[in-house]
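B., you asked whether I could sanity-check this one before it goes into the benchmark set. Here's the sequence:
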Amino acid sequence: MSLIQTENLTKIYGSGETAVTALDHVTLKVGTGEFVAVMGPSGCGKSTLLHLLGGLDRPSEGEVIIDGTPLATMKDNDLTKLRRKRIGFVFQFYNLIPVLTAVENAALPVTLDGIKPGEAKKRAAEWLERFSMGDRLSHHPDQLSGGQQQRVAIARALVAEPALVLADEPTGNLDTRSGDEIAGLLRDVTKKYKRTVVMVTHDPRIAAYADRIVFLKDGKVVDETNLERKGAAEKIASKIKEIGD
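And here's what the prediction gave me:
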């Protein structure tokens, strides 16, 4: 069953001679519990695709359907509620609030949704403990390593129990070891916790943790590759070279 479906998804910025087509008639399906990585050259439309899937931007043409719900017909308030309850976001630079502790940062989405602070912190603590952060609940972001901050960010993305997690270069600000740990954790999010993850990355080693790679070029899907764990990074690197930068 598909959690995400797009039909001829297109995004054009500007008009007339200055118009730029960031995404060009992309049709895509992502299954429930699937881990999909999106790769391609800079400016190929990766982040635009992620923003459209998350309802952060509206398409110029085409449709995004999340869990059976077409986003195009939704009012802004309803779209905001969908993002808050059904979609979790993870970014490259963590976006944690410096004055809040790890558990307060992770609890923020459900706190803002009206859940009592005690219950919100309890839910956040459960996710942080799953991610080996149980002994860091009261630490502030500046007391945590980059990898630990990203674990908090992923816990924050999951605290509202969304069906979908969208991750934009989640390892781009981390060293190799921490990046591998975060990629493995995102894989656990799909395999252990049955969430769907769509991740933008430029790193073949990180993409190798996914079930499937979608390759974009000039705003179009030019290839898709289902992965087996053995030799996946090499296969992805070869495909990237074939597609070209």
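One thing to flag: The chain has one domain: 2-93+163-243. Otherwise nothing jumped out at me.
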